[in-house]
Amino acid sequence: MIALRALEFDRIRPALAALTATEEGRRAMLSLEPEEDAGQLDLLAQEVASILQALESGISPPGGDVPPLQEIFSLLSRRGTLLELDHLVALRHLLEAAQDFFRFFRSGEEEGYLQGGRSARLQGARGLQTTLRSLLTGQGELREEAVPEIVSLRRQITGIHQELQRSSEAILRSSRDIYREDRATLRDGRTVLPLISDFRGRVEGIIHEASGSGETLFVEPPELVDLNNRLVRTHNDILREVRRVLRDITDEARSCLGELQELSVQIVAADCLLARARYGLSLEGRVVPRGDRLHLIQARHPLLGRACVPLDITFDPSTRLMVLSGPNTGGKTVFLKTLGLLALMNHCGVPIPAAEGSFLPFFRWIGVDIGDEQSLDEALSTFSAHLRALGEITRRADEHSLILLDELGSGTDPEEGAALSMAIVDHLVERGSTVLVTTHQTVLKHYGYTRQGAVNASMAFDEGSHRPTYRVIPGRPGGSHAIDAAREQGLLPEIVEKARAYHGAHQESVTGIIQRLTREEERLNDDRQALARLREELSLERDQAAQARERYQEKERLLREEGLREITQALGEARRRVEAEIRAVREAGGELEKDRIHRAREALAEMTRLRNETAQELKASSSSEGAPDSGANRHSGRGAIEPGAAVRHRGTGRAGEVLRLRNDRAEVQFGAIRMTVALNELERESSAGEKKALRPVISAGSSRPVPPPALELDLRGYRLAAALEELERSVDAAVMHGVPLLSIIHGTGTGALQKGVQDYLGERREVRSFRFALPEDGGFGKTVVEFLKGSGVG
Questions:
Q1: CA nearest neighbour of 352 among 420, 295, 426, 425
Q2: How far, in whole angstroms, is CA 177 from its chain's centroid?
Q3: What residues form the annotated binding site for ATP?
Q4: Which residues contact 598 (CB under 8 A, 6 or more apart)?
Q5: On the CB side of 9, how many CA atoms lie within 13 Å of its CA?
Q6: Which of 3, 48, 362, 778 would give a disulfide with 368, using CB separation of 3.0 to 4.6 Å?
Q7: Do 176 and 168 touch, CB atoms closer than 8 A?
């Protein structure tokens, strides 16, 4: 709606949104539109007026900050899903906000300011609120002391730690000379002892790692293995117990999903009503009732503050048109914008700054033409832009419309502009619209005297100080006082006096006019002749440029054909060399590695693709007969995406940066992880958001697509290098798809594969923790990895 922007209603919306307590309420206020149904507007205005009275009486408004809940409701609607702690915190905010809103509306109802009914709709899920309060801390963490099973497990952990300490101290005292220090340490959550490497053969146990110098080995003696295993199992029991508690709360929330959804709807509705009333309170405003005529007393523009001069704006029942005139900078446009903005606010149920006794009709549409709407893109002059706006206004206006026109008829010949203005005003009055026009044209001022349903009004001007007073004088037109305003703004006195002399003269010498017109005609003839010569020169240059372009296109075609021959020759030579190498290795009884064959085939495929693309471009260039090359963007993915480009993954929405391209795939850095994905899965971000290209990072598995996520990876039988490549791909896939846990089977063997796996996991920032599996689930032959929540691409 043009009126919303022209009247600066877009500055009111953020102020309303800042007074809301819910995310949905903020969105509703930022997209607030006038109510189109008079009955609904009356109900809305009545409720906002009641809330405003309650606020003025001193009842404190509710607070809170309720995040969006649609994702949580979606999870609860699917059986088997589990709410995390942050989801439960959001539900607690919802229920606490509901309680605050309930207290406000119940207090207003009890004191007689508010009608009964809304407070009753702000209750629900009280049992869930009690559960959340008892099980969640103020920081949104699980209150473990409220769960007896977790308290018991924590005591067990304390006891196990004490046993580990006693056992460690006993071992260290009995063999002090073979240990580096007299205290135990932790490695991967397990208590180990610092053995001097020279005494490796004297102690049984599991070696977890060595110091940087290699002189100290961190050993887990058999006496500590069982205690460490018990400690791990107890920690796992705590995690299982936490998940059980979360599942119980989720089930309780799922059982009252309907109540939660209805409660959210009611809170957002109450939040929007309160935001309107609180904004009105800040303006010292009121809800203006609906009347059969327009009558505003002491109305103030809400964006100008208390310093602005209050205005009285009145249209009698028989008045359809007010012609407002007066000095420049006298406040005519402010008057017009004040009326329009207050009418918009009133039709949105927002209190307005006006005195008691004011009322407004119901306008279904507000048409506005204010300011300079010149459009360079559409080659429109200021006057043309105004005509376009006036065309829409005259088509849509009816008896339920408020029309506001600023400086009607300006920007063109005064006589034609005046005639057009009167015809437009005639049409609007005949349609029954309420019209306010500001003007400097004398013809329109006369219109206010001579036409039925039209009145004049003027902005007052202090004749003594020669300055506007910003007050409205109804019933008579005002002068422009342009010469007085020019003097006040510092125009040279001699220019002002000459202007007065010109203004006082009734006619100008006809001879002087004819002489000036003759000189102007001679100048125009000279300009036309110069323009004709310039056209001839431009035509000649255009022909020469066309010939040069044809020569360059022919040269380009020849160069492309030469390049195609060279590529074809190089491709044939490369194929022969690769096939000869493969044949020689096979005749010698050897076997090529799959990765080398894959890379050779990729190189050949890349050269073949380059040859085919060059041939296609050459064909398109030849058939276009000099037309611009359309093959530059032959591949939407590669034409728009290159190394260093900022892109977004279509499936997950995660932003990243392209490191390199290979065939139809791209290696992309997504935050802390690096992935190889198909180009058709990417879309380019705006160029303003692109960064400098990162230093390329080489990954052993980066030339392959990310596999689907798996819950278990078996590396037995792999060499260490190949195993780490498979591990990297599986970890990437798990992180990208949000898999929380991954089991890695590496066996025990010599321990090299086990250590390599855990060293690699220790370097991945997405890994929260890793540990050996339970004895019955693989023990030291399997490592279980837990990933940080939210580390995935999605």
A1: 295
A2: 65
A3: 326-333
A4: 703
A5: 27
A6: 3
A7: no
Query: Do the Cβ atoms of 486 and 496 come closer than 8 Å?
Result: yes
Q: State the binding site.
A: 326-333
| CA angle, 597 then 598 then 603, to 5° | 100
Domain boundaries 712-787, corresponding CATH code: 3.30.1370.110
Q: Are 409 and 441 in contact (CB under 8 A)?
A: yes
State how beta strands 673-678 and 712-714 pair: unpaired
What tens digit of pLDDT does each residue of 658-693 get? 888 877 888 888 765 667 778 888 888 765 444 433
Which residues are 375's β-sheet partners? 380
518 pLDDT above the threshold of 50: no
Question: What b-and-e string marks burial along 118-140, b requiring 16 or more CB atoms within 10 Å of the CB?
Answer: bbebbebbeebbebbeebbeeee
Cα 719 to Cα 618: distance, rounded to the nearest angstrom: 49
Residues in the chain: 794
Q: Backbone dihedral region of 117: left (phi > 0), alpha (psi from -120 to 50 degrees) or beta?
A: left
Least confident of 138-147, 155-164, 296-305, 568-577: 568-577
Check residue 489 and give its pLDDT. 60
pLDDT value of position 639 = 47
Q: Just give the CATH number of 636-689.
A: 2.30.30.30
Q: How far apart are CA 546 and CA 626, in angstroms?
A: 10
Tens-digit pLDDT profile for residues 291-327: 888 999 999 999 887 777 888 888 888 888 888 887 6
The fold of the 146-247 domain, in CATH, is MutS, DNA mismatch repair protein; Chain A, domain 3 (1.10.1420)
Q: Given this structure, which CATH class describes domain 7-125+256-283?
A: mainly alpha
Please check whether the domain covering 295-503 is classified as CATH 3.40.50.300: yes
Tokens representing residue 393 in the block: 């206004």
The alpha carbon of 658 is separated from its chain's Cα centroid by a whole number of angstroms, namely 23
772 vs 751: CA distance, rounded Å: 13
